[in-house]
Amino acid sequence: MYEHGMIAPVVALVIWTLIMWVWMYATRIPAMQKAGIKPGQATKSAMEALPSANVANNYNHLMEQPTIFYAICFSLQFLEQTQEINIGLAWTYAALRVVHSLIQATTNFIPLRFLVFSLASLVLVALTFHAAIAVGFVQFNFGH
Which of 60, 72, 65 lies closest to 121 in space, CA to CA? Predict the structure, then answer.
């Protein structure tokens, strides 16, 4: 889990994003057919009314904040900042995004989804803080 540094959690989240992509189309296409919606004639409101909307929205969410995660992970890898804390934080972020997806795609219980999103965001802040230290934007000494 730690031997590939910051790269393995990135690959894991990309794999999860592709799983959500498959899930989106596996639910969206049948839902569109059942509702009589033709692909070229779909409106935003018609698509949002489909039962597959939460899965599609989550796939879109995986194109948003995780892009920052990818950039920070590659930055930390290139900066040789692959300490266990950073790798552990990266795995934590990826796991929280999977949990976020499962909540949104199934129950979509907003308070729980927001809590998980907030925790993931804090993990991303910690990773970014470590990258800022590594490039000298922040002066911080961890007890040395």
Answer: 65
Q: What is the DSSP letter of 39?
A: G
pLDDT for 32 equals 92
Query: What stretch of H or E contains 127?
Result: helix 110-134
Round to whole Å and give the CA distance between 8 and 66. 14
Give how far the C-alpha of residue 30 lies from the chain's centroid of Cα atoms, to the nearest Å: 26
pLDDT tens profile 27-68: 999 999 999 998 888 888 999 999 889 999 999 999 999 999
Q: What is the pLDDT of residue 144?
A: 61
In 42-79, which positions are buried (b, 16+ CB within 10 angstroms) versus exposed (e)?
eeeeebeebebbbbbbbbebbeeebeebeebbebbbee
| pLDDT attached to residue 127 | 98
Candidates 112, 111, 120; CA nearest to 62 is 120
Asked whether residue 142 carries a pLDDT value surpassing 80, the answer given is no
In single-letter form, the type of residue at position 51 comes to P
